[in-house]
Amino acid sequence: MLEDETGKQLPAKTVFSLAIEFLKRDILEHCHKQILFVLKEDDIKWVLTVPAIWNDGAKQFMREAAEQAGIARSKLKIALEPEAASLYCRYLPVEKGQEKNSLALFGSGMEYIVLDAGGGTIDITVHQVIVDGKLRELHKASGGGWGGTLVDKAYEQFLSEIAGPETFQQFKEKHMDDYIDLLRMFEFKKRGTSPGHSGKVTFRIPPTFAETIKDATGLSIQDKIMSSAFKGQVTYVSGKARVDVEIVQSFFTQSVDSILQHLASLLGERMNRECTAIVMVGGFSQSSILQDAVKRAFGRRYNVIIPKDAGLAVLKGAVIFGHRPSTISERICKYTYGQKVCHETTRNCNHPPTRTKWIDGKLHCSDIFMKHIKIGQTVKLEEEQMEMITYPPYADQTTICMKIYASKSSDPRLITEPGCAKIGKFVMPIPDTSLGIDRKIGTRFIFGDTEIATMEDDTNTSNFSYSEDDLVKIAEVLKSSFQREIMHLVKDAVSQSASVIVDGVLTGLQEKVNFLKKKI
Question: Does the predicted TM-score (pTM) go above 0.90?
Answer without folding.
Answer: no
